[in-house]
Amino acid sequence: MSGLTLKEIASQIQAEVLGDENFTIHRLASLLTAQNEDITFLSNSKYRSDLSLCKAGAIVLTREDAEFCPASINRLVVKNPYFAYAQIAKLLDTTPKPAEGINPTAVIAEDAVLGKNVSIGANAVIESGVQLGDDVVIGPGCFVGKYTKIGARTKLWANVSVYHEVEIGEDCLFQSSTVVGSDGFGYANHQGQWIKIPQLGRVIIGNRVEIGACTTIDRGALGDTIIEDGVIIDNLCQVAHNVKIGKNTAIAGCVTLAGSLTIGANCQIGGASVLNGHMEIADGVIVTGMGMVMRPIDKPGIYSSGIPLQTNKEWRKTAALVLNIDKMNKRIKALENQAKS
């Protein structure tokens, strides 16, 4: 790419330039790998000592950190360097679109409604009754089922499957091999045999939602599975039928959400956590990684579970103690009663 001057970048991120505002930047790099044509950032003051080793053409940092930076390096002073980094990454992003134009091998139903500037990749299938908004991009090998609606500027990377009657909002992003609207795990047991219950609900996804690769979102059994605006979900997550996720909640990789779970707004769920179904999680809850949430949480805060990694020898001792807690509790109560008498 041709690059951007520091003046152009500063105007986009509301930064003050200390140095040559006409200096041209071509790439974004980390603090210690950046070279002369790169821009980098310092968001944690404990790494100030690395500034003397930096070879970047420019650094984004706070005013407090700027005085520790060599005067020979151009500086962009901001209040929040990490947020500025995110903005610059968008300005310098070279990621290609999942598709450009409509590939002749795409299969598109005659009654599908396509907005302006829609792109559909090779071997994608767009079924009857589908509505695609302006600037929607459907990657190669995608499947979009009957009567599904996808809002403007939403992008689906390769091999995403969206089942029938799903509604997806605007400015969403779905990574490869995501599945939206698959059947929930609904069965009735009759005389030892599992009888499948048709899943008659839908999946409703708001605006600015991003879903990672190989994540599955099941449709509702009767009502709908609902993901509200601004939610981000990482790779390899399972969202079961009738789950509801509130606005701007973030869910890290390999999380499992059981059926009919309701998660509030602005929550953070750490990687590999498992949350039980048919309960509610309040707004503003943070569950740290590998959390096992078996009961409702009605107050915001940070919640954790599990035992940190130990050597096997230490773990065996811990396990033995845990298995004997009931006996120890009874002995302590007996001793307390003796002390009182």
Automatic annotation (TrEMBL):
<keyword id="KW-0441">Lipid A biosynthesis</keyword>
<protein>
    <recommendedName>
        <fullName>UDP-3-O-(3-hydroxymyristoyl)glucosamine N-acyltransferase</fullName>
        <ecNumber>2.3.1.191</ecNumber>
    </recommendedName>
</protein>
<dbReference type="InterPro" id="IPR011004">
    <property type="entry name" value="Trimer_LpxA-like_sf"/>
</dbReference>
<comment type="pathway">
    <text>Glycolipid biosynthesis; lipid IV(A) biosynthesis; lipid IV(A) from (3R)-3-hydroxytetradecanoyl-[acyl-carrier-protein] and UDP-N-acetyl-alpha-D-glucosamine: step 3/6.</text>
</comment>
<keyword id="KW-0808">Transferase</keyword>
<dbReference type="InterPro" id="IPR018357">
    <property type="entry name" value="Hexapep_transf_CS"/>
</dbReference>
<dbReference type="InterPro" id="IPR001451">
    <property type="entry name" value="Hexapep"/>
</dbReference>
<dbReference type="GO" id="GO:0103118">
    <property type="term" value="F:UDP-3-O-[(3R)-3-hydroxyacyl]-glucosamine N-acyltransferase activity"/>
</dbReference>
<feature type="active site" description="Proton acceptor">
    <location>
        <position position="241"/>
    </location>
</feature>
<comment type="similarity">
    <text>Belongs to the transferase hexapeptide repeat family. LpxD subfamily.</text>
</comment>
<keyword id="KW-0444">Lipid biosynthesis</keyword>
<keyword id="KW-0012">Acyltransferase</keyword>
<dbReference type="Pfam" id="PF00132">
    <property type="entry name" value="Hexapep"/>
</dbReference>
<keyword id="KW-0677">Repeat</keyword>
<comment type="subunit">
    <text>Homotrimer.</text>
</comment>
<comment type="function">
    <text>Catalyzes the N-acylation of UDP-3-O-(hydroxytetradecanoyl)glucosamine using 3-hydroxytetradecanoyl-ACP as the acyl donor. Is involved in the biosynthesis of lipid A, a phosphorylated glycolipid that anchors the lipopolysaccharide to the outer membrane of the cell.</text>
</comment>
<dbReference type="InterPro" id="IPR020573">
    <property type="entry name" value="UDP_GlcNAc_AcTrfase_non-rep"/>
</dbReference>
<keyword id="KW-0443">Lipid metabolism</keyword>
<dbReference type="Pfam" id="PF04613">
    <property type="entry name" value="LpxD"/>
</dbReference>
<feature type="domain" description="UDP-3-O-[3-hydroxymyristoyl] glucosamine N-acyltransferase non-repeat region">
    <location>
        <begin position="23"/>
        <end position="91"/>
    </location>
</feature>
<dbReference type="InterPro" id="IPR007691">
    <property type="entry name" value="LpxD"/>
</dbReference>
